[in-house]
Amino acid sequence: MVKFLVKRLLGLIFVIFCVTLITFLIGYYAPGNPIQVMLGDHPNPALEAQLMHSYGLDLPWYQQYWNFIVHLLHFNFGTSYKTINRPVNDIIGESLPISLELGFWALIIQVGIGVPVGIISALKANTWVDTTSMSVSLIIYALPPFVLSILAQLLIIWLDTTFGGSWPNSQWGVPWQYSWMDIQYKLAPILVYGAAGMAYFARLSRTSMLEVLRQDYVRTARAKGLYERVVVYRHAFRNALIPLITIIGLSVGFLVAGAFFIESIFQIPGIANVTLDAVNSLDYPVVQATTVILAIGVVFGNLLSDICYTLVDPRIKAE
Amino acid sequence: MEKERSPKFSKPNFIQPEGSMVPPATPQGAILDEAPALVDESALKDAEDKKKKSQTPLSESLRRLRHDKRAVVCFTVIVLYILVAVFGPFIYTHIGADYKSDISNTTISSTIYRDFTHQEPDRKHEGPSAQYWLGTDSIGRDLFSRLMQGMLISISVAVIVEIIDIVVGVAVGVLAGYYGGWIDFFLARFTDVMFAFPGILFLILLVGILGPRIDTLSNIPVIGANGNARLVLVSLGLAVTVWPTMARYVRGQTLQLKEQQFIEAARTSGASDLIIILRHLVPNLLSIVIIASTLNIANTIISEAGISLLGLGVQPPGSSIGLMISDATSYMQYHPWEALMPAIVLIIIVLAFSFLGDGLRDAFDPRSKD
């Protein structure tokens, strides 16, 4: 167990090293001098040289990379090129809580709705309940998140014009506060964000539950004359959860990928939107910071799923 | 026919994809698994006695596929989609009547006003009509022409990405599975990094930061024209992110295959590694490669549309389904059609590829069904 975790941690450090190197190199070899972009239409070689020096851009690449890593370890991501002298930490501090909130609720919806739907489908396998819910979830799962977002926005607009409401179809409320106004802003993006994962969880938990219901110990439990309720919830359900627990960690990756579209279409000022803005304005310090944060999030999600796996199912050991 | 090619040993049956791709087999399936040669041979013999011709596993799978109504419908939709994307623009621009433009006070032919880049400033936000079959967008461009161009773009990107994916994925996967060693190690590490680094983030960084440099290629015909230059980057980036998955499927399959008796027989009869890989391993990877790439096409189409929607893919005078959706988002209040139409087309093609992929999996691997 400990050996397994140490091995995973070493792998994790390697992955983070690669991610930082990729991010750094993309920024380093990128065309367009950000300082020139910053100075705009008024070229001024003296000022340019001074700024290059103050941002450390005149050093050779390995020194820049070393500085980058050292700063990273101090959680110091430097200052933004776009808004001069604004620490990147500020920008992250503003946008990250919004993304975390969005992701948190999406995860709750995925698990909270997806798993029960899947379990019920498995218990009613091959009835209309099962076929309907599985067809719907297959379709939702196959659709890209941005199409779902557009459809949701069109639906909101249609409802607004038909019933004369003023339900907002973009922007975000105050992070982690839930007045009626905030809920109006947050409901649609959260539902759309959760939908794809929800469908995935539904399909997965159905397969898992069906698998468990076929096992001998379930037959034994039934043969003993236990109530169906006890068989389903005590014996089957718990074991069906094992594969699901590991998926929760992995779904961080899906959430990060989905965030770009949800935040961009619903104009939510989260970290993915900040990344997109920074990419468009060649604001490398911000791009590097957000990339590293998102990648670390995904890596830790993977690690978490590994840990859960070993905790839940002791048969699994390090290969 | 299949038998004559390899008379020395019993015919290989199609090995099923590795466990990660399909739900675990049932106990009954496991029993069948242990005696595949027996089942296969007796079935072959029966078929021979009856019809005097052997049923290869491939023709068997294709027969199953033809009986799957959903798969057939999806296949038809995909063929129609490709036909419309390839031949549609030419036909559409040549069958319209001339149009007298009020703005420039000249008569223009349909080859001009139905061009996907042409703007008619006084024909904005129109609904479908005889002149503009699907209406016009916010600056008076023909939506049907733009849609067909977008369809062509999505199919082209999918084809390019799939070719790279299959070539690189199969090559690395077979070598990693057959030889192991440093190729296997490289594949495992590379996959680790690619899995930790969300594909879409990689694409955004690559296209967003290197995009402006690529834009200078815009005077190259076909590749560069109409703001398509960045698609080269998008395709390369997508190929880089997807091939590890293909390589892992292929590797898993190769690991199973190389323990099979027919490989051993080939080796005993003196076949070189190259012959074993090309003649005996690669043909047996056909089913898994077809399934994985069909399912992957859906993802590729989604990613291209998504990147264009974020404003990083196809650039304005050009068209892409994603760009059409993004153009329409500002006008959804009064012109929902402009956003809905490309979204529906995207939904249709994505679902068609996903369901066809499912159908292929069921046909090539009947046991994967619940």
Automatic annotation (TrEMBL), chain A:
Main location: membrane
Source superkingdom: Bacteria
Transmembrane segments: 9-30, 102-123, 135-159, 183-202, 241-266, 286-312
SUPFAM superfamilies assigned to the protein according to its UniProt record, in alphabetical order: MetI-like
One of the GO BP terms on file: transmembrane transport
Bilayer topology term: Multi-pass membrane protein
UniProt subcellular location: Cell membrane
Transmembrane in keyword set: yes
Keyword field contains Repeat: no
Alphabetically ordered keywords of this record: Cell membrane, Membrane, Transmembrane, Transmembrane helix, Transport
CC per GO annotation: plasma membrane
Pfam families (alphabetical): BPD_transp_1, BPD_transp_1_N
Similarity annotation: Belongs to the binding-protein-dependent transport system permease family.
Annotated PANTHER family: DIPEPTIDE TRANSPORT SYSTEM PERMEASE PROTEIN DPPB-RELATED
UniProt name for this protein: Peptide ABC transporter permease
UniProtKB/TrEMBL annotation, chain B:
Main subcellular location of this protein, as a coarse class: membrane
Domain ABC transmembrane type-1: 151-357
Transmembrane segments: 71-92, 151-178, 190-211, 231-250, 281-302, 339-360
Its membrane topology: Multi-pass membrane protein
InterPro entries in UniProt: BP-dependent_transpt_permease, MetI-like, MetI-like_sf, OppC_N
Location of the protein in the cell: Cell membrane
Start and end residues of each stretch annotated as Disordered: 1-33
Gene Ontology CC annotations of this record: plasma membrane
Family note: Belongs to the binding-protein-dependent transport system permease family.
Protein name per the record: Glutathione ABC transporter permease GsiD
Species annotation: Dictyobacter arantiisoli
